[in-house]
User: Fold this.
Amino acid sequence: MKRTIDILKNSDKMKKAFAFIHSDDENTLAQTLELVKIPAFSNCEKKRSEHFRALMENEGYEVITDEVDNVYTIIRGSGCGPTVYITAHLDTVFPMDTPLIERREGEKIFVPGISDDTRCLAEILSVMRAIKAAELTPVGDIIIGANVGEEGLGNLRGVRNFFRNNADKVDGFITVDGAGTGICIGAVGSLRYKVTFSGPGGHSNGAFGLVNPIHAMGRAIAYISEMRAPQEPRTTFCVGVVEGGTSVNSIAGSCSMLMDIRSVSQEELLKLDAKFKECVQKAVKDENDRWEEERNSPFAHFDTSARIEVTIEEIGNRPAGMQTENDDIVRIVKEAYEAVGVTIPYMGAASTDANIPISLGIPAVAVSGGGKSGNAHNVEEWFDPTDAYLGVQRILLTLFSMVGLSGVSEALLPVRGK
Ligand SMILES: [Zn+2]
Assistant:
C-alpha cells in the first residue's frame, strides 16, 4: 500500500496536480469568500447549491442536481476500479438572517460558516480543477460535488437521499469537513425527540387533584437522569430543552421537552432509546396513579376521567457505526497522509455525513480540509488560510490512492462484494 502511494505521489501527473493546487491557492480562497456570503442554513441551501452548480459548470463539468439539491458530477474511470463519492456540505448552522460580514485579524478571516464547511466546498472545486489541469484519469469512478443537510436540522438528508438511490453503486465515501488533520472513522449515532405531555389543565387550587403534565414531565426527567449508559462504547443522553405552563396558579394543559441520545454503537443507542421510552411511560402511569384518591373523593371538582397523554415525536435520527484502524479505507487515508508528512493526531468518531454510509457498511471517512480554524458553530468562526493548499493536495492524493490513477497506480480501495 505504501509503495503504491509513493509511486502515485512521485508520478509526473500527481506532481503536476500538486503544483497546480499550490498555484490555485488564491483562487480557492476567493471562492471560499464568494460562497460563504450566500446564506445556507440547513434546509435552505437552494441558492448556494445553484451557485455551486454554476461554479462546477464553469470548470467544464456536467452537473446533476438531485431532488434535494445535492449537486455532483461523475468522473468516469478507465475501468474496473472502485467508485468513490467525495463531497462537502453546503449547509451551515447559521439562520438565514445572520450577517455574513468578513473581518480580518492578522491571518484569521472571520465569517460565520467559513471553515464549516464553506472552505471545504472551495477545496472540492480546486480538486476538480486539478484533475482537469493535470489530466488525471482515475481507474475507478469518482462522484464529486456538494451536498445539503449535514448540520443539526438537516438530519443528514442530503447524503441520506444520495445513498437511498445509489448505495449499491458506491464503494467508498469521503466527506471533507472542517479544518485540521484528524480523521473521523466512526459514526456517533443519535436519536432526538420532542416529548409532549398533555392534560385538560385547570385552576391550581380549584381543580386540585387533576393530573399535571408538568409533574409528569418532572417524573420522566427524574427517571431519565437515573439511566445508566456505558462509557465504552461511549453512549450519552441529555434533556436539552423544557417548555410549558402558562402561570404560577394554573395546572398546565401541556408541556414538552427535547431529548438527545447518542452512541457510537447502534445496539447501545437502541437499548438506551428503549429505556428512555420506558421512563416516559412510567412517569405517565405514576402521575395518573398518583391522583387516584383525589379522583375518587366526593369533593372532586374536576374532570375525573382526565389522564395524562404523551406523544414522543422523533425529530432526529442518525445511525451509528464504527470502523477500525485495520479497515482498508482507514489504512489508505493514514498512508496517504504519511506520504505527505502528516501524522494523523487522532481517529475519532463524530456525527458527520459519513454516518449514513458507515451505517450501511460502506467504507467512509470524514477528513478535514487545509488551513486552521476555530469557533465552529459560533458567529465568531474563523479560518486561517496559511498553507491551506497542503490540505487540498492531501485530499487529492487520498482520493486517487483509493480509486487509482490510470497508467500510474492501481486502486487501493476494494470494490465491494469482490
Ligand atoms: Zn461540518
